[in-house]
Amino acid sequence: MTAGLIVLILVIIFRSIISKNQKPADGIALATPSPSQSPDVLAAATESAGSTQSASKTEPSPVLSPSVSPVSNVANATPGPNVDSCQASAGNLTFNVSVKDASRDINSDMSFTFIQPQDEKIPSGISVEIPKGWNIPNGNSITQGEQIGEGCLSFMLDGKAGLSNLIILNNRDLQGHWAAWDLVFGNPSSPTVVLNTFLDGNVGAGYTWTINRKFLFDIHPPITFNLTLYAKVVGKNGNVGDSLFKAVGRFVGGASSVIDKILSLF
Fold it and tell me: Is residue 70 within 8 Å of residue 80, measured between CB atoms?
Protein backbone atom coordinates (compact mmCIF):
# COMPACT_ATOMS: atom_id res chain seq x y z
CA MET A 1 0.00 0.00 0.00
CA THR A 2 1.49 3.31 -1.04
CA ALA A 3 1.86 6.23 1.35
CA GLY A 4 -0.54 8.37 -0.69
CA LEU A 5 -3.32 5.79 -0.44
CA ILE A 6 -2.87 5.49 3.34
CA VAL A 7 -3.17 9.30 3.76
CA LEU A 8 -6.37 9.35 1.66
CA ILE A 9 -7.98 6.62 3.81
CA LEU A 10 -7.09 8.49 7.04
CA VAL A 11 -8.64 11.75 5.72
CA ILE A 12 -11.93 9.97 4.86
CA ILE A 13 -12.13 8.34 8.33
CA PHE A 14 -11.40 11.68 10.06
CA ARG A 15 -14.14 13.52 8.14
CA SER A 16 -16.64 10.78 8.96
CA ILE A 17 -15.94 11.12 12.72
CA ILE A 18 -16.41 14.95 12.63
CA SER A 19 -19.70 14.66 10.73
CA LYS A 20 -21.20 12.27 13.34
CA ASN A 21 -20.28 14.53 16.29
CA GLN A 22 -21.85 17.77 14.85
CA LYS A 23 -25.07 19.06 16.60
CA PRO A 24 -27.40 22.00 15.78
CA ALA A 25 -26.78 25.21 17.69
CA ASP A 26 -28.79 25.83 20.86
CA GLY A 27 -32.29 27.29 20.18
CA ILE A 28 -32.45 26.27 16.52
CA ALA A 29 -34.91 23.54 15.55
CA LEU A 30 -34.12 21.63 12.43
CA ALA A 31 -37.50 20.75 10.99
CA THR A 32 -37.76 17.83 8.66
CA PRO A 33 -40.94 17.27 6.62
CA SER A 34 -42.79 14.08 7.38
CA PRO A 35 -42.51 11.52 4.57
CA SER A 36 -46.32 11.53 4.35
CA GLN A 37 -46.46 15.30 3.71
CA SER A 38 -45.54 16.64 0.34
CA PRO A 39 -44.25 20.24 0.00
CA ASP A 40 -47.62 21.21 -1.50
CA VAL A 41 -49.49 20.01 1.63
CA LEU A 42 -47.19 21.97 3.90
CA ALA A 43 -47.62 25.10 1.81
CA ALA A 44 -51.41 24.74 1.96
CA ALA A 45 -51.32 24.36 5.74
CA THR A 46 -49.22 27.52 6.08
CA GLU A 47 -51.59 29.47 3.84
CA SER A 48 -54.57 28.24 5.87
CA ALA A 49 -52.96 29.36 9.13
CA GLY A 50 -52.32 32.80 7.68
CA SER A 51 -55.95 33.07 6.53
CA THR A 52 -57.20 32.13 10.00
CA GLN A 53 -55.13 34.86 11.62
CA SER A 54 -56.43 37.45 9.14
CA ALA A 55 -60.04 36.41 9.74
CA SER A 56 -59.61 36.81 13.49
CA LYS A 57 -58.84 40.49 13.12
CA THR A 58 -61.95 42.67 13.49
CA GLU A 59 -62.44 46.23 12.44
CA PRO A 60 -63.42 48.67 15.23
CA SER A 61 -67.17 49.28 15.51
CA PRO A 62 -68.33 52.65 14.22
CA VAL A 63 -69.32 55.13 16.92
CA LEU A 64 -72.85 56.45 16.78
CA SER A 65 -72.54 60.19 17.21
CA PRO A 66 -75.75 61.81 15.99
CA SER A 67 -76.71 65.36 16.76
CA VAL A 68 -79.07 65.66 19.72
CA SER A 69 -81.63 68.31 20.58
CA PRO A 70 -81.56 68.11 24.39
CA VAL A 71 -84.87 68.18 26.22
CA SER A 72 -83.20 70.24 28.95
CA ASN A 73 -83.41 73.28 26.65
CA VAL A 74 -87.17 73.29 27.11
CA ALA A 75 -88.54 75.55 29.85
CA ASN A 76 -89.68 73.65 32.95
CA ALA A 77 -88.58 70.34 31.44
CA THR A 78 -86.92 67.65 33.50
CA PRO A 79 -83.65 66.19 32.17
CA GLY A 80 -84.08 63.98 29.11
CA PRO A 81 -83.65 60.20 29.20
CA ASN A 82 -80.22 58.67 29.13
CA VAL A 83 -79.09 58.58 25.50
CA ASP A 84 -78.00 54.96 26.00
CA SER A 85 -81.66 53.98 26.36
CA CYS A 86 -82.20 55.00 22.75
CA GLN A 87 -79.30 53.20 21.11
CA ALA A 88 -80.45 50.72 18.49
CA SER A 89 -79.67 47.01 18.83
CA ALA A 90 -80.07 43.77 16.94
CA GLY A 91 -82.54 40.95 17.54
CA ASN A 92 -86.31 40.52 17.34
CA LEU A 93 -88.80 43.33 17.95
CA THR A 94 -88.86 43.92 21.70
CA PHE A 95 -90.99 45.84 24.18
CA ASN A 96 -90.28 46.74 27.77
CA VAL A 97 -92.16 48.66 30.47
CA SER A 98 -90.70 49.86 33.76
CA VAL A 99 -91.33 52.26 36.64
CA LYS A 100 -88.80 54.14 38.74
CA ASP A 101 -90.38 52.92 41.96
CA ALA A 102 -92.15 49.55 42.08
CA SER A 103 -93.90 50.28 45.38
CA ARG A 104 -97.69 50.26 44.97
CA ASP A 105 -98.14 53.32 47.21
CA ILE A 106 -95.78 55.66 45.35
CA ASN A 107 -96.60 57.03 41.91
CA SER A 108 -93.53 57.24 39.68
CA ASP A 109 -92.53 57.76 36.07
CA MET A 110 -93.39 54.93 33.69
CA SER A 111 -91.20 54.16 30.67
CA PHE A 112 -91.96 52.21 27.50
CA THR A 113 -89.17 51.07 25.19
CA PHE A 114 -89.62 49.60 21.72
CA ILE A 115 -86.71 48.17 19.73
CA GLN A 116 -86.98 47.11 16.10
CA PRO A 117 -83.89 45.39 14.73
CA GLN A 118 -82.34 45.90 11.33
CA ASP A 119 -84.73 44.16 8.96
CA GLU A 120 -86.95 44.87 5.98
CA LYS A 121 -90.14 45.75 7.89
CA ILE A 122 -90.99 49.46 7.94
CA PRO A 123 -92.92 50.59 11.05
CA SER A 124 -96.24 52.35 10.61
CA GLY A 125 -97.49 52.57 14.20
CA ILE A 126 -97.57 51.25 17.75
CA SER A 127 -100.34 50.61 20.27
CA VAL A 128 -99.76 50.09 23.98
CA GLU A 129 -102.40 48.38 26.11
CA ILE A 130 -102.24 49.47 29.76
CA PRO A 131 -104.12 47.09 32.09
CA LYS A 132 -107.00 48.05 34.34
CA GLY A 133 -106.30 49.53 37.73
CA TRP A 134 -103.92 52.25 36.54
CA ASN A 135 -105.33 55.74 36.94
CA ILE A 136 -104.67 58.09 34.01
CA PRO A 137 -106.43 61.47 34.20
CA ASN A 138 -108.74 62.75 31.51
CA GLY A 139 -107.09 65.18 29.14
CA ASN A 140 -109.41 68.03 30.11
CA SER A 141 -108.18 67.89 33.70
CA ILE A 142 -104.64 68.83 32.64
CA THR A 143 -103.53 72.24 31.40
CA GLN A 144 -103.33 72.68 27.62
CA GLY A 145 -99.74 72.23 26.46
CA GLU A 146 -98.48 70.96 29.82
CA GLN A 147 -95.49 68.64 29.54
CA ILE A 148 -96.42 65.17 30.80
CA GLY A 149 -93.47 63.14 29.54
CA GLU A 150 -90.39 62.85 27.35
CA GLY A 151 -88.52 60.37 25.21
CA CYS A 152 -86.08 59.77 22.38
CA LEU A 153 -85.94 58.03 19.01
CA SER A 154 -82.92 56.52 17.25
CA PHE A 155 -83.15 55.50 13.59
CA MET A 156 -81.41 55.27 10.22
CA LEU A 157 -82.01 57.99 7.62
CA ASP A 158 -80.27 58.04 4.24
CA GLY A 159 -77.79 55.48 5.53
CA LYS A 160 -76.80 57.55 8.56
CA ALA A 161 -77.65 57.08 12.24
CA GLY A 162 -79.93 59.71 13.76
CA LEU A 163 -81.12 60.48 17.26
CA SER A 164 -83.89 62.87 18.30
CA ASN A 165 -85.21 63.79 21.71
CA LEU A 166 -88.89 64.53 22.19
CA ILE A 167 -91.31 65.84 24.78
CA ILE A 168 -94.92 64.78 25.38
CA LEU A 169 -97.48 67.57 25.74
CA ASN A 170 -101.12 67.39 26.80
CA ASN A 171 -103.66 68.46 24.18
CA ARG A 172 -107.21 69.31 25.24
CA ASP A 173 -108.51 68.73 21.73
CA LEU A 174 -109.63 65.21 22.68
CA GLN A 175 -111.70 64.48 19.55
CA GLY A 176 -113.79 62.00 21.53
CA HIS A 177 -110.83 60.25 23.21
CA TRP A 178 -109.97 60.01 26.92
CA ALA A 179 -106.71 61.89 26.40
CA ALA A 180 -104.69 63.38 23.55
CA TRP A 181 -100.91 63.57 23.85
CA ASP A 182 -98.64 65.26 21.32
CA LEU A 183 -95.14 63.88 20.73
CA VAL A 184 -92.99 66.87 19.80
CA PHE A 185 -89.66 65.94 18.17
CA GLY A 186 -86.72 68.30 18.06
CA ASN A 187 -86.82 71.91 19.25
CA PRO A 188 -90.30 72.56 20.71
CA SER A 189 -90.28 76.14 19.38
CA SER A 190 -89.72 74.80 15.86
CA PRO A 191 -90.34 71.04 16.00
CA THR A 192 -89.22 68.68 13.29
CA VAL A 193 -92.32 66.50 13.66
CA VAL A 194 -95.40 66.49 15.90
CA LEU A 195 -97.31 63.22 16.29
CA ASN A 196 -100.86 63.44 17.62
CA THR A 197 -101.48 60.36 19.77
CA PHE A 198 -104.62 59.31 21.61
CA LEU A 199 -105.52 57.35 24.73
CA ASP A 200 -108.84 55.51 25.09
CA GLY A 201 -110.34 53.60 28.02
CA ASN A 202 -110.77 54.03 31.76
CA VAL A 203 -109.37 52.81 35.08
CA GLY A 204 -111.84 49.90 35.26
CA ALA A 205 -111.20 48.52 31.77
CA GLY A 206 -107.67 49.65 31.03
CA TYR A 207 -106.38 51.93 28.29
CA THR A 208 -105.01 51.78 24.75
CA TRP A 209 -102.42 54.36 23.68
CA THR A 210 -102.32 54.62 19.88
CA ILE A 211 -99.35 56.14 18.06
CA ASN A 212 -99.43 56.39 14.26
CA ARG A 213 -96.45 57.46 12.21
CA LYS A 214 -96.36 60.38 9.80
CA PHE A 215 -94.40 59.41 6.69
CA LEU A 216 -92.53 62.70 6.39
CA PHE A 217 -89.10 61.08 6.55
CA ASP A 218 -87.92 57.76 5.14
CA ILE A 219 -86.51 56.38 8.38
CA HIS A 220 -85.47 52.74 8.61
CA PRO A 221 -84.47 50.18 11.28
CA PRO A 222 -82.64 49.64 13.49
CA ILE A 223 -85.02 51.78 15.54
CA THR A 224 -85.26 52.32 19.28
CA PHE A 225 -88.20 54.33 20.62
CA ASN A 226 -88.33 55.33 24.29
CA LEU A 227 -91.32 57.08 25.90
CA THR A 228 -91.59 58.12 29.55
CA LEU A 229 -94.80 59.33 31.17
CA TYR A 230 -94.38 61.42 34.30
CA ALA A 231 -95.81 60.23 37.61
CA LYS A 232 -98.50 62.93 37.55
CA VAL A 233 -100.33 61.13 34.73
CA VAL A 234 -99.73 57.52 35.82
CA GLY A 235 -101.46 56.63 39.10
CA LYS A 236 -100.80 53.18 40.52
CA ASN A 237 -104.13 53.31 42.36
CA GLY A 238 -102.87 50.85 44.97
CA ASN A 239 -102.10 48.15 42.41
CA VAL A 240 -100.07 45.23 43.69
CA GLY A 241 -98.69 42.09 42.04
CA ASP A 242 -98.31 41.57 38.31
CA SER A 243 -99.77 43.85 35.64
CA LEU A 244 -99.86 42.58 32.06
CA PHE A 245 -99.00 45.21 29.46
CA LYS A 246 -99.19 44.58 25.73
CA ALA A 247 -97.61 46.28 22.74
CA VAL A 248 -98.73 45.88 19.13
CA GLY A 249 -96.21 46.90 16.47
CA ARG A 250 -97.70 47.59 13.05
CA PHE A 251 -95.74 47.59 9.80
CA VAL A 252 -96.23 48.80 6.24
CA GLY A 253 -98.04 46.09 4.29
CA GLY A 254 -100.26 44.97 7.17
CA ALA A 255 -97.92 42.78 9.24
CA SER A 256 -98.00 43.17 13.02
CA SER A 257 -96.21 41.89 16.10
CA VAL A 258 -97.78 41.47 19.55
CA ILE A 259 -95.59 41.43 22.66
CA ASP A 260 -96.69 40.92 26.29
CA LYS A 261 -94.75 42.33 29.22
CA ILE A 262 -95.41 41.86 32.94
CA LEU A 263 -94.73 44.68 35.39
CA SER A 264 -94.54 43.61 39.03
CA LEU A 265 -95.43 45.89 41.94
CA PHE A 266 -95.17 45.20 45.64
Answer: yes
Q: Give me the architecture of the 71-265 domain, per CATH.
A: Sandwich (2.60)
How many Å apart are CA 235 and CA 257, to the nearest integer? 28
- The full 3-state SS of the chain, as one line of letters, equals CCHHHHHHHHHHHHHHHHHHHCCCCCCCCCCCCCCCCCHHHHHHHHHHHHHHHHHHCCCCCCCCCCCCCCHHHCCCCCCCCCHHHHCCCCCCCEEEEEECCCCCCCCCCEEEEEEECCCCCCEEEEEEEECCCCECCCHHHCCCCCEEEEEEEEEEECCEEEEEEEEEEEECCCCCCCEEEEEEECCCCCCCEEEEEEEEEECCCEEEEEEECCCCCCEEEEEEEEEEECHHHCECCCCCEEEEEEEEEEECCCCEEEEEEEEEEC
CA torsion, points 58, 63, 64, 67, in degrees to nearest 10?
Answer: -160
Per-residue pLDDT band at 240 (split at 50, 70, 90): confident
Digit-coded pLDDT (tens) for 79-128? 334 434 454 333 467 999 999 998 888 899 999 999 988 777 888 999 99
Please count the CA atoms within 13 angstroms of the CA of 123 that sit on its side-chain side.
Answer: 27
- Decide: pTM greater than 0.85: no
Q: List b or e across 114-153, with b for residues whose CB sees 16 or more CB atoms inside 10 angstroms.
A: bbbbeeebbbbbbbbbbbebbebbebeebeeeebbbbbbb
CB atoms within 10 A of CB 178: 18
Give, in order, the Cα–Cα distances in Å from 124 to each of 50, 71, 184. Answer: 48, 25, 17
